[in-house]
Amino acid sequence: MTKAINSFAVELPNASTDPNFLYKKELLKHIESNYPNMTVSGQNPPAVRRGVNHASYGNLLTFGTSKTHDIEWVERPSYACEKGYTPVYNLTKDWNKITRKLKELNDELYPENLHLSNGTEVEFHKNFVKVGYKRVSYDNVRFKVTLASLIFSNEDIEAMYFNLMR
Question: Would you list the domain boundaries of the chain?
Answer without folding.
Answer: 8-109, 114-165
